[in-house]
């Protein structure tokens, strides 16, 4: 990430220089309306225009995103025409001289293959066409050329060559950020699929076996458990969004624990202490349920006597503090460290490392799981969730199907 931010900072600097140049060359004090010097006004306008062009590009290089950003990019360069291309076609042409599309694409093979800029004269028989020169600047992401920014003007200009190259670098940074966002989304989706795949087959088998055992002796109880099972699986395998609310996650946990209690009876006791004000807090989907399943596994399946699980969610100012605690068998802290580091795979069930990794990806390294445990001393897992985080928005509760 630091490389992308550094690239972004480097790409902004040419805009400041471009704004300075525009201020020296074009701005007039009487047109500024009292908004500083000509240079300050031009610099502000340049950065403002760049900020308007950036959002579409953060979705990648497509015909739609190119169309939405081309006008802003042409304004930055002050050219008669500008086009954005991928490796096969012109995605958008903004300005005059659109009849040069075919010629432009025919001349792009060399610059795109070599990954270097180039300026060349255009052939045109139209006497009223102001476009005579084209400046090509490749758009690269991770050293791969994805397309080109082509600025067209009446005459050759060394300033335009340099400015087009710097704007193309800035566009490339936006495309790199888009690629990073898409990679992060694919990673999160893969991890959610991994969580779904790891939902214990033994849990599903045991739940259905418990339900079947009540069919003859207590049909109404069997029906209730079947509905709990249906609601839990529907939530776990939903396809709507990467995030959910704390309320929905706790609702799914309640379905899960209802099935566990049906199996283990009075061997499991549970304490819930939830502050109502934290229920709307958004968090990564399937983030807490694996922690509760871990508590059940180490609290019940690892010993013969009773187990108590305590779940609390407290309001802690700008954060929600969620704690899941059991009095089960616990774990060796060194083994836990190796599991979270990915050096050792957990034996069965869903590992804690998946949840820890996703929390760090979404909120930063300061928001990983805090786990306290020792052999025979149970386990206490604390998760801190910011109440407000850019880009973290929960999906609406999934309606019954």
UniProtKB/TrEMBL annotation:
GO MF, one example: phosphorelay sensor kinase activity
UniProt keyword terms in alphabetical order: Kinase, Transferase
Pfam families per UniProt: HATPase_c, His_kinase
Gene3D superfamilies in alphabetical order: Histidine kinase-like ATPase, C-terminal domain
Domain Histidine kinase intervals: 288-389
Record's GO cellular component terms: membrane
Top-level taxonomic group: Bacteria
Matches recorded under PANTHER family: SENSOR HISTIDINE KINASE YPDA
The protein, known as: Signal transduction histidine kinase
Source organism (scientific name): Streptomyces aurantiogriseus
């Amino acid at each position: 990430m630091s490389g992308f931010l550094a690239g972004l900072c480097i790409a902004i600097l040419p805009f400041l220089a471009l704004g300075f140049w525009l201020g020296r060359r074009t701005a007039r004090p009487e047109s500024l309306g009292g908004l500083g010097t000509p240079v300050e006004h031009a610099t502000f306008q340049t950065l403002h225009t760049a900020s308007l062009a950036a959002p579409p590009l953060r979705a990648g290089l497509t015909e739609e995103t190119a169309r939405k950003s081309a006008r802003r990019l042409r304004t930055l360069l002050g050219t008669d025409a500008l086009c954005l291309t991928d490796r096969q076609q012109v995605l958008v042409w903004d300005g005059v001289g659109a009849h040069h599309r075919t010629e432009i694409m025919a001349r792009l093979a060399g610059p795109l293959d070599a990954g270097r800029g180039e300026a060349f004269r255009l052939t045109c028989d139209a006497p009223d066409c102001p476009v005579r020169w084209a400046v090509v600047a490749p758009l690269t992401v991770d050293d791969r050329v994805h397309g080109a920014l082509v600025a067209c003007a009446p005459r050759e200009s060394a300033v335009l060559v340099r400015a087009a190259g710097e704007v193309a670098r800035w566009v490339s940074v936006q495309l790199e950020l888009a690629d990073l966002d898409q990679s992060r989304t694919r990673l999160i989706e893969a991890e959610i699929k991994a969580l779904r795949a790891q939902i214990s087959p033994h849990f599903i088998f045991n739940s259905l076996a418990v339900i079947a055992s009540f069919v003859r002796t207590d049909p109404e109880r069997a029906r209730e458990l079947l509905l709990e099972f249906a609601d839990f699986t529907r939530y776990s395998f939903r396809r709507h969004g990467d995030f959910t609310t704390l309320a929905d996650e706790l609702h799914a946990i309640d379905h899960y624990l209802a099935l566990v209690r049906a199996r283990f009876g009075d061997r499991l006791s549970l304490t819930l202490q939830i502050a109502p004000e934290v229920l709307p807090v958004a968090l990564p989907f399937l983030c807490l349920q694996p922690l509760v399943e871990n508590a059940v596994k180490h609290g019940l399946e690892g010993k013969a006597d009773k187990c108590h699980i305590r779940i609390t969610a407290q309001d802690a100012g700008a954060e929600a503090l969620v704690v899941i605690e059991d009095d089960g068998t616990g774990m060796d802290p060194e083994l836990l460290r190796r599991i979270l580091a990915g050096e050792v795979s957990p034996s069965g069930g869903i590992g804690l490392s998946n949840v820890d990794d996703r929390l760090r990806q979404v909120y930063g390294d300061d928001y990983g799981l805090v786990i306290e445990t020792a052999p025979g001393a149970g386990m206490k897992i604390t998760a801190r969730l910011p109440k407000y985080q850019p880009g973290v928005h929960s999906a609406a509760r999934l309606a019954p199907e």
